[in-house]
UniProtKB/TrEMBL annotation:
It is a multi-pass membrane protein. This is Peptide/nickel transport system permease protein. Belongs to the binding-protein-dependent transport system permease family. OppBC subfamily. Residues 104-305 form the ABC transmembrane type-1 domain. NCBIfam families: Opp2B.
Length: 320
């Protein structure tokens, strides 16, 4: 187990190092000069590059780390990251790490609440679809799942705001006004991911129920519901667990759109504001944060998959 964990950790570190290279190069390959583009956003609308002084451009290029040979730029940037320094925002002049830390609790609150919503929708829908496969309940559950997958987050969010905030006036529409403020963003974010998870759970349950050992148990007289809950659910959850890193990453990635729609105080909205203002250090810092988060989630899922699935343990020992 330890050797497997070490190999997966080494692969995760290699992936993270590759992510730093890609993120570093993104700022360098965009068309035009980043420093000029940033300074133009600070001028009056309609102003041209002729109004910028060469000294200001060179000073900002130095602040962005765009001077010197490319390999040296990367090593200096990577060294600052290893020291926990993501730089400072060009807009607020505040450390990016501090600004992210101040907004992460809001995003984690939204993601955790959305995860509860997702499980509350996905598990019953997936179980009902598998238990009544080919019947009306299954068709209805699959239709709702397809609808949930088809609706974009921003459109569903607008619909929920119109229904519950403007028409019924049950819930606040934007910002943080108390615990009830998280309900609409969590429903918006959790519903779409619940649809995907429910479809995956249904397919996994039906595949497990068709295995020879399950057919033999059914031939012995066990009811389908008992087979489902007592024997099929645990092995069927393994593919769902495999996709859980993508689900959790989707919760945090989808928060970028949802936080913008609901003016939610989180890192997603912070990222959108940075893009609008061409705050490149913030964009780099957020992208690196999300990449590291995805890699860590995949590493944790790999370890859990190794622990829960005996077939993986056997294969690892066989190839060791």
């Amino acid at each position: 187990m330890l050797a497997y964990a070490v190999r997966r950790a080494a692969a995760a570190l290699a992936a993270l190092l590759g992510a730093t290279v890609v993120i570093f190069l993104l700022l360098r390959v965009i068309p035009g000069d980043p420093a000029t583009a940033v300074l133009l956003t600070m001028l009056d609308p309609g102003a041209g590059s002729a109004e910028l002084s060469r000294a200001d451009i060179e000073a900002l290029r130095a602040e962005l780390g765009l001077t010197g040979p490319l390999p040296l730029q990367y090593l200096e940037w990577l060294g600052e990251i290893l020291r926990g320094n993501l730089g400072a925002s060009l807009r607020s002049r505040q450390p990016i790490m501090g600004e992210l830390a101040a907004r992460i609790p809001g995003t984690l609150t939204l993601a955790a609440t959305s995860l509860v919503v997702m499980l509350a929708i996905a598990l019953p829908c997936g179980l009902v679809s598998a238990l009544y496969a080919g019947r009306s309940a299954d068709h209805l559950s699959r239709a709702l799942s397809l609808l949930g997958e088809s609706l974009p987050n921003f459109f569903l969010g607008v619909l929920l705001v119109y229904l519950f905030a403007l028409w019924l006036r049950w819930l606040p529409s934007m910002g943080w006004q108390g615990p009830e403020s998280v309900v609409l963003p969590a429903l918006t974010l959790g519903a779409g991911i619940a649809a995907t998870t429910a479809r995956l759970l249904r397919a996994s349950l039906l595949d497990t129920l068709s295995q020879p050992f399950m057919l033999m148990a059914e031939a012995k007289g066990l009811s389908r519901s008992r087979l489902l809950f007592r024997h099929a659910l645990r092995p069927a959850l393994i593919p769902v667990l495999t996709a859980s890193s993508l689900v959790l990453g989707g919760l945090l990635g989808g928060a970028v759109v949802v936080e913008t729609v609901f003016a939610w105080p989180g890192v997603g909205r912070y990222m959108i504001e940075a893009i609008a203002g061409r705050d490149y250090p913030v964009i780099q810092g957020f992208t690196l944060f999300m990449a590291a988060l995805f890699i860590v989630l995949n590493f944790v899922v790999d370890i859990l998959y190794r622990v829960l699935d005996p077939r993986v343990r056997v294969e690892v020992r066989r190839h060791a």
